[in-house]
Amino acid sequence: LAIFLLSTFALGDDASSRGEVLFKKCAGCHGADGKNKAFGKSGIIAGEDAADLVESLTFYKESEFKGQGSTLVMAKQLKTFSVKDITDLAAYLSKLPK
Questions:
Q1: Who's near 20: CB < 8 A, 6+ residues apart?
Q2: 28 partner at 20 to 30 Å CA-CA among 8, 19, 34, 77?
Q3: What torsion, rounded to 10 degrees, do the Cα atoms 6, 80, 43, 88 define?
Q4: Based on the number of CB atoms within 10 Å of its own CB, is 70 exposed (0-12), middle (13-18) or buried (19 or more)?
Q5: How far apart are CA 35 and CA 38, in angstroms?
């Protein structure tokens, strides 16, 4: 995974451009600029460290939540995301201004 992350971040603009397209699925809750606190609970994701974002997004994707709420929404949103999708999304979000 580390090598994949490094190669994705090395691609720079391509990964970020792809991440911008992927983020459209997230903007309804997180805001077009990534500065909304989704469900009034999440942190602001714009400008966060890419590695931290990958870790969080992967956690949500791999989790099976039996409850309801924002964690279930995140798990469902990320269900179809590949590792590349997650790293590209993280690359894009990390470049947004805080």
A1: 92
A2: 8
A3: 30
A4: middle
A5: 9
Q: What is the mean pLDDT of the chain?
A: 86
Query: Exposed, middle or buried, 67 (CB in 10 Å: 0-12/13-18/19+)?
Result: exposed
| Phi/psi at 75 (5° precision) | -60, -40
Helix (H) or strand (E) holding 11: helix 2-11
- pTM confidence score: 0.82
CB–CB of 85/22 below 8 Å?
yes
Query: How distant, in Å, are the alpha carbons of 11, 35, 53 from that of 97?
Result: 20, 9, 15
pLDDT in tens, 34-78: 999 998 989 999 999 999 999 999 999 988 765 568 888 898 899
> If you ran DSSP here, which 8-state letter would residue 39 be given?
G
